[in-house]
Amino acid sequence: MLDASGLSPWVREKSKDVFACLARAEARAHGASVDQVHFHEVGAIDSIIDTVGSVLALELLHVDEVHCSPLPYSNGFVKCMHGLMHVPVPATLDLMQGVPVIPAPKGATGELVTPTGMSLMKALATSFGPPPAFIPHTHGSGAGTKDFPGHANIVRVVIGDATHPMTHRPTPSPSNDESIVVLETNLDDMNPQILSHVQELLFDQGALDVWWQPIQMKKNRPGILLSVLCLPDGVNTLSTTLFCETTTLGIRRRTMERAVLQRSSMTVTSLYGPASVKVGYLNGAPVNVQPEFDDCQKLALAANVPIKTVLAEVQALARASLKKEAPVA
């Protein structure tokens, strides 16, 4: 359906990312593979409209990053095709792993976050929690049909520019240092096929990076050093996943400091379609301009052109746009 539509490659692929996120959660909730699950959420027409419409809105409004506030963790029940179920329902709860939540407003019971809504945020949001410093430009609100006593059923979207108002560049952070944690474990008795599954779970739960490398262990056994990079608030969730999903009996933790560039993203429209670009700033000046590889790969395949052609054009357009925005000395 999506591939046959007139939507841009970016909208089609981002929509597929959302559906894939939801499909994996539904599969885990049903204890089955993705192919075995009947995705009543995925297949519902209103779910498709909500998902594709949201992604299309991001493109039309030129939204480069999505930052989501902590989500409400409600209580009560919801009636679905399986009967009455506790909320959040299993698929939603699966998607909430690694995401900050807050108690639901007083008087608001029942389903406040649906699997479709949660998959949209999980697939599209850059971060959860307080937004980075930005300049609001416009906003909109949407109201649901369900009425809660003493609490408005409203979702609000604020669109702004995370840039300095005079230079159109990100306001330099007072510090480019942040604390991170490295989780490590040695494995010599686990089926290596499990590694890719574990990596996917860890990324879904907020890991910044996951990698492994071959090592030589005791008794001359070949082994794997599995490493996970995360923020401090993700240590407990990710450690639990490592204990449950691998054969490890212990996990090493190291807290480190890292220096990071001030980051932002932008979208440029090339001859082949729109693509995201990551920009790294040092002292307010762009020093790294990197096209999003997945976006460029999809555009190259759709247009049947070499990917290096798409990468070069997208990067050139981004650099030209940044140069145009630079203040005149």
TrEMBL record:
Record Pfam families: Ni_insertion
Domain of life of the source: Eukaryota
Database matches in InterPro entries: Ni_insertion
Residues annotated as transmembrane: none
Entry keywords, A to Z: Nickel
Protein name, as recorded: TIGR00299 family protein
Organism: Saprolegnia parasitica (strain CBS 223.65)
